[in-house]
Specification:
By secondary structure, the protein is an alpha/beta fold. The protein folds into 2 domains: 183 residues, 3-Layer(aba) Sandwich (Aspartate Aminotransferase, domain 2); 119 residues, Aspartate Aminotransferase, domain 1 (Alpha-Beta Complex), CATH 3.90.1150.10. Helices cover 35% and strands 16% of the residues. The protein has 12 helices and 12 strands. The strands form 2 sheets. The chain has a 7-stranded mixed beta sheet. The protein starts with 26 loop residues before the first helix and ends in an 11-residue tail after the last helix.
């Protein structure tokens, strides 16, 4: 589609039409929202980032005095954001998402799978809870998981990752099961202004054209790398939903995603490895066509092991990626005992 960067559109016979001011809607945004909504099976709204979508969800749907039950071990930015939003009277508690959510929560916040620990939620247990359920499906995408079909009320995406897919757009999205939630969130988005711009929406539309091809290829590569890493003496622990997680096997269809993490002996070992790769970029974020790796301890501190490395598989040849990891691992001193 042609990219329209207009901020205003003329009234029709003196009345506002579907488009009148781009803080509320614009052509690229509407088209991208419809496309994503069709993929996820709901009604979508785009935001300027995943963090903006998360903030809009809390401020748009919760009240002071309410509590969020947050999946423990997920994206580290979410509990930091929720701690910041305590000033508005919303609390949060963390729980093991492989079990039942705590009673008394007003919103259940899951990650499927979690980043960087790759745990998977018990979706039926969450759906039985009276609270709304939101699933951050950034790492699975609607190619592998459609949470609304399993009882979730909302889906959250950091569309910067797989939906955009080329590491060149900052974007977030919420997909709603109910019209009421969608209408409320859309109203608050218009008032507060975090709508995604036309260029970002257009880039997501480009990414959606190849989403299935990319995600299936990245899933195949990640699974193969997980198996090879698991057999390597220099690797202490591998985390990947495709290595026998029964919940992931039950709900993910077509693969287990392009994200995995693994531990080496120490923080120094992790730094040696991440700075020794030649094909895999030593960079943050995930979901792009080029593979990336990084130590997460630099950002997350003691909530993760010092030796934890997060690896996002791209579209390179799997043997080329393994050769790169193998030569980098050869530079890392081995520890005599593994954690199995």
């Amino acid at each position: 589609m042609a990219l329209d960067r207009s901020t205003i559109w003329p009234y029709v016979d003196g009345a506002a039409g579907e488009l009148y001011y781009s803080r509320y809607d614009h052509p690229a945004g509407l088209t991208a929202e419809r496309a994503l909504g069709k993929l996820d099976g709901g009604r979508a709204l785009l935001y300027s980032s995943g963090a903006a979508a998360s903030t809009a969800l809390v401020l748009g749907l919760l009240e002071p005095g309410q509590t969020i039950a947050l999946a423990g071990g997920g994206y580290y930015g979410t509990p930091l954001l929720l701690a910041e939003l305590r000033r508005f009277g919303v609390e949060h508690v963390e729980f093991d998402q492989a079990g039942r959510p705590p009673e008394g929560a007003d919103l259940i916040w899951l990650e499927a799978p979690s980043n960087p620990f790759l745990t998977f939620p018990d979706l039926p247990a969450a759906a039985e809870h009276p609270a709304r359920v939101v699933v951050d499906a950034t790492a699975s995408t609607p190619v592998l998981l459609r949470p609304l079909e399993h009882g979730a009320d909302l889906v959250l995406h950091s569309a910067t990752k797989y939906l955009g897919g080329h590491s060149d757009v900052l974007l977030g999205a919420l997909v709603c099961r109910s019209d009421a939630d969608w209408e409320q969130l859309k109203r608050v988005r218009g008032l507060t202004g975090p709508i995604a711009g036309p260029d970002a929406a257009w880039l997501m539309l480009r990414g959606l054209k190849t989403l299935e091809l990319r995600v299936l290829r990245q899933s195949e590569t990640a699974l193969e790398l997980a198996h090879r890493l698991d057999a390597h003496p220099g690797v202490e622990l591998v985390r990947y939903p495709g290595l026998g997680n029964p919940l992931a096997a039950r709900f993910m269809q077509g693969g287990f995603g392009g994200l995995l993490s693994f531990d080496v002996a120490s923080g120094d070992a992790a730094r040696t490895l991440e700075t020794s790769t030649r094909v895999i970029k030593n960079a943050t974020s995930l979901g792009g066509v080029e593979s990336s790796i990084e130590s997460r301890h630099r950002w997350e501190g003691d909530r993760v092991p010092e030796g934890l490395l997060r690896l996002s598989a791209g579209l390179e040849d799997v043997d080329e990626l393994w050769a790169d990891l193998e030569q980098a691992l050869a530079r890392v001193p081995e520890r005599s005992e593994r954690r199995d």
